[in-house]
Amino acid sequence: xxxxxxxxxxxxxxxxxxxxxxxxxxxxxxxxxxxxxxxxxxxxxxxxxxxxxxxxxxxxxxxxxxxxxxxxxxxxxxxxxxxxxxxxxxxxxxxxxxxxxxxxxxxxxxxxxxxxxxxxxxxxxxxxxxxxxxxxxxxxxxxxxxxxxxxxxxxxxxxxxxxxxxxxxxxxxxxxxxxxxxx
Length: 183
Hints:
Number of domains: 1
Oligomer: single chain
Strand content: 15-25%
Distance between the termini: 80 Å
CATH superfamily: Jelly Rolls
Order of helices and strands: HHHEEEEEEHEEHH
């Protein structure tokens, strides 16, 4: 299917238009134009996920070839911390948010588990579809990858700030523990 045929296939679709608008929203990839988002959405496939289904499993190396744009519903993001047996909930994401974008680009093991908290309706972009987008419209594909990279950089900086704060708290607690007790 050519890019023109793909665009025609989603033209007039209120779901595709809503997905494109969400893709350029503040929760996703604001760096894209609406026309670029429409092109990307034309390469995506609709996907429904039942409540309780794990969409992405932390550590998985086999199913790393997609990202999901959440259109409706909520997804809980969890991770296992070495010192705990139960996962820690990192966040709950809703409409307009993306999951799995790092795996889409690098194919490495998933960094967290993502489970549908409710029934979810989404749009999936696979690595194969990203390859077609690169062939059809290299400029839009490059802008998509740059937007994902910028979004990932922001999250990495936020994580670094949290790690610094955690380190400071740990050091303060250790100093308090080591302080001699006055009786």
